[in-house]
Amino acid sequence: MAHDYPHHHHDGRHGADRGGYGRLFAAGIALNLGFVIVEIWFGLKTGSLALLADAAHNLGDVGGLVLAWAAWAAARLPASEHKTYGWQRGSILASIVNAVVLLVAMGSLGWEAIGRLQDPSPVAAGTVMAVAAVGVVINTATALLFMRGSQRDLNLRGAFLHMAADALVSLGVIIAGALYLWQGWTWIDPLAGIVIALVVIAGTWSLFRQSLHLLFDGVPEHIDLQAVRADLTTLPGVVAVHDLHVWAMSTAESALTAHLVCREDVVIGTVLREARLRLHRDFAIDHVTLQIEHDLCADHCDATLPHGQR
User: Is the pTM value of this prediction over 0.70?
Assistant: First the structure.
């Protein structure tokens, strides 16, 4: 078996460290956690379910930032004799826990909002709008912290998109408050709470589904397995590819193993080097293990494979 080295592990010398993203994650978490406390306080004081729903949403986003920070930090931890992949998979487990907690919280708030919709009560719309306006500022500022890194790092891109979406949700709360002040619609606040809960549940369900998929070694959604197979098959001297497996080592790093059937005259080092370059360039896969086989045994190898792997 031939291993394709070197692997590009995050060891403190890559872009994430150069950008000081550890400090940016800490700043973003502190800002948003402080805002969640403010939202809960004023949400309970004013009786605004829209504000409480947004607080629950933002609390989930604090957890999301913590998870993104954990994934960033886990990629820097060295492997050991007992944990040959290190602690990278912990970010996947944490994302599932975060999704379940958020789904339960938003389901409870949504149920409460439905009950409140049948018997709406006045809210302090001015206070709700002021607090939500602070949320727009904080969420936008947090998103901007990760905007530059989001162009080259999927983990940072997720943090950026999540916080940008939060700014839009807080804007929705402001609109609901404005409609209440304008028309006096007491039902607009619980309705806004229901809408926000549904939007968050939809997004969180996607997070839960993807995390569960990765936990069971599913192919990451941003990787097209057939495209990977086609790319490897077109390598010089490669006549077939089988036993191709791609899975997530963490929420930010993928691994690949495959058998490459090559002509007898192929230069193995050249094939491995070109395969590594293509997988890194086209699919951002850096942890690669390849086994080279000669085409003389290709028919025999193919006959022994299960139908789904040929």
Answer: no
